[in-house]
Amino acid sequence: MTLRRLSDATGISISHLELFLKGDMDDMPAAPYLRGYLSRIGKVLEFEPEIWWEHFKQAGIKSSGGKDSLPKNRFASKPISKHFWWIGVVLIVAIYFGFRFTAIFGKPILIVEYPSSEMIQVTESPVVLRGRVEYGDQVFINSESVPLDNGAWRKEIPLQPGLNAFEVKATKFLGRETISLRQIFYEPTRVSTSTVPDENAGTTEETVGQSSSTRE
């Protein structure tokens, strides 16, 4: 077994292997590294490294005190640091808020189903304003709260003849709001007031005339 082959088999530099051969304790690496080297060489040359470890300790190797131990494998998997856990949590929260940005920070989505256009004309009263809201907590019609049922809302409103204006507003807990304006022109149906002829009018006059002739 040449030093070159032993170096290739153990991953230990030739210069350090030469120190082993010379027994040069002053230039040898610190105790933790030396013990690791012995463990690698022992596996290749098939000897018990702990026996030689005791020999080198008695020979006066450089010690690191009570922390003398086998060096850690640089290629072994290391436990995940707590900082990485926090980074992972922050990333998950950021992704969540990214997808839920509109729902949390955006304006409510207000849909007015009736009346669907901004201005309509009707001939009957009352009317029912209705619609639905997404990402909103409350709906108001002219500052009056309207109850929500799974996002749907409706309210029956009596109309005054002429133009009736309504402000439909959806709000959310962060203060954002969406407003939609509607105008309804109410023109009641006119009732006909033409005079209907009295069929009994002629009969009455005739009866009165007959009575007068009888008295004469």
Strand content: 15-25%
Regions with little confidence, pLDDT below 50 for 5+ residues: 65-71, 203-216
CATH architecture of the domain at 104-186: Sandwich
Helicity range of the residues?
Answer: 25-40%
The radius of gyration is: 50 Å
User: How far apart are the termini?
Assistant: 168 Å
What is the structural class?
A: alpha+beta
Average pLDDT, all residues? 76
Task: Characterize the main sheet.
Answer: 5 strands, mixed
Give the CATH class of the domain at 104-186.
Mainly Beta
**Biggest β-sheet: strands ordered side by side in the sheet:** 2-8-7-4-5
Q: The CATH topology of the domain at 104-186, please?
A: Immunoglobulin-like
Task: Work out the helix count.
Answer: 7
Shape field: rod-shaped
Which homologous superfamily in CATH is the superfamily of the domain at 104-186?
A: Immunoglobulins
Q: What is the element string, with H for helices and E for strands?
A: HHHHHHEEEEEEEEH
- List how many beta strands DSSP finds: 8
